[in-house]
Amino acid sequence: MERRTFIIAAVAGGIGLIEYSYLTRWMNGLRDPGGFSVKAYEKYGAEAALVAITPNEDFYVTSKGGTPAIKAADWRFKFDGLVAHPFTLTYQDVVNLPRIEKDLTLECISNSIGGNAIGNAKWTGTPLKPLIERAQPLKDAAYAVIHAADGFSTGHPLERLWNAENFLAYQMNGEDLPPVHGYPMRVFIPGKFGMKQPKWVTRIELVNKAYLGYWESQGWSDSSERLAHARFTDLKSGAKISGRNFELTGYAVGNLDGIRSVELSFDDGRTWHPTSLFSNPSPIVWTFWKYVWVNPKPGDYNIHARAIDGQGRVENRDPRNIYPDGATGEQVMKITVA
Predict the structure, then answer these.
(1) Parallel, antiparallel or unpaired: strands 259-265 and 299-309
(2) Which residues contact 74 (CB under 8 A, 6 or more apart)?
(3) What does the domain layout of the chain look like in residue ranges?
(4) Which end of the chain is more exposed for a tag (fewer CB within 10 A), N or C?
(5) Strand partners for 231
(6) How far separated are the first and last CA of the chain, in Å rounded?
(7) Nearest-5° angle of CA 49, CA 327, CA 36?
(8) Which residues, in sequence order, are bridge partners of residue 146?
(9) Which of 263, 278, 331, 208 is nearest to 51 (CA)?
(10) Do residues 330 and 304 make contact, with C-beta atoms less than 8 angstroms apart?
């Protein structure tokens, strides 16, 4: 496999995802759950999660097909449908709008528990809300359909589109978007899985009823809210450790409610211990946690990790597969203390 591309395709029954990504070995050290090291960023303290940027060439890529070849000079963005003032913008028009930079952790809905289809980048663009205000949605506008140049589409309730976190992006980590990441323009709706945030965006159309997009029409989640989940790093299941004090580390992500806490259990969920969220800068960026396991007794352990979001909702205990709402459930590490 030469491309760092996750080609998504329908499988038997027409409802699955084929994620060749899980077989690649190119991912920002996220080649496996133990490859990315939260521990390596501890020295940055509260800023650690922001410093942990995934290079463009190593950021995971998901597409429904190939990468369209688009020239910025030819690209147009339309905002129309049930609006009082439809308009069309060129690439330069968008670049000339008020400029923002946002750190955002993006994750594919087909990322398995402890998987590697996740990355963090600094995105440059312009807020979406002023464009909605410019268009002036009509009273019966209820849903936004987002169209992309590769034929992909998805929908959002108009209320969700108004959120101030949403934006159009044209740069990634200080460079023009790479073609595989949506050049010349993509849209972000933070708090959702990646399938609801199209690359190569060309149009936002307001309609009066719900719209099922490319993947939603095959049974995948229409809301695609990323529920809070905690994951280990710097440790592989089956590891043997020794010593008086052992530091466990990892990250957690969720939706716009953010991460309130991450807890660990060393007795299969009977009791839970709070970790230290040493870097928790924003609900739209991964949260880094650590826990010092003091003088563990020799033996075999199943260590569970769970996240609790800003609304107090606790991550499910039982693992759930990626279809249709994204994988969730506690990650468990089998560890032997010598």
Answers:
(1) antiparallel
(2) none
(3) 6-30+56-218, 229-337
(4) C
(5) 251
(6) 40
(7) 35
(8) 154, 204
(9) 278
(10) yes
| Residue 280 three-state SS | coil
Q: Would you place residue 160 in the very low, low, confident or very high pLDDT band (cuts 50, 70, 90)? A: very high
Evaluate if residue 21 carries a pLDDT over 60.
no
pLDDT at 17 over 70: no
The answer to whether residue 139 scores a pLDDT higher than 70 is yes
* Helix H or strand E segment including 191: none
| Cα(226)–Cα(256) distance, integer angstroms | 9
**Choices 2.60.40.650, 2.60.40.10, 3.40.50.12280, 2.30.40.10: CATH for 229-337:** 2.60.40.650
Phi, psi of 104 (to 5 degrees): -145, 130
Per-residue pLDDT reduced to its tens digit, 25-38: 323 333 343 468 99
Q: How far apart are CA 298 and CA 230, in angstroms?
A: 25
What the block records as the tokens of 176 is 């023009």
Look up residue 14 and give its DSSP letter: G
* Whether domain 6-30+56-218 has CATH 3.90.420.10: yes
pLDDT, tens digit (0-9, with 9 covering 90-100), for 38-51: 999 999 999 999 99
pLDDT at 223: 96
Please tell me the distance from the alpha carbon of residue 51 to that of residue 48, in angstroms, as a whole number.
5
Asked if residues 329 and 315 have their Cβ atoms less than 8 Å apart, the reply is yes
